[in-house]
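Hey,
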Amino acid sequence: MADRYRPKSAVQRAREGNPSKTSIKEGVIVPRAILVEPDWAGAFPASPDPAVELANVRCREVASEEWRRVVPILEVAAGIGEVDHTTVKDLCVCVARIDQAERDLSARGLIVTAERGTVKNGAATIAGQYRTQLARYIRELGLSPSARMSITAPALEDDASDVWD
């Protein structure tokens, strides 16, 4: 199902037809770039608490693994630029935090004992919120099959076509 709130790209509108005859805006062209992996210690800093430090080390590893998995695909398929660096970094942080919450749920369970008795593990709520945000990043970056259907690949640069020729 199409997202009725998100406008279609100029190429897609031209391809599918423009029955309303409204002008088609080309949109912003972002220069392509090779994104450099961030230092994950900024997002997951060292901690004097050994349990927190162990979790942060794991988060750094998961975020780095996600970065190395996703960025090469986005550089080719979506033509991401330097302006997208923060969005991709946030996607990787979301994946790492979901992993952290899921590990907590596996270790402590869905119901935990607290001061007021047995309650729902807070990691379940946190995981749900991060999953909602992750779904937005996946849609924005075209990382799901349905999202890939709604974006058009950037044109390959042709060295033979020069503005001055």
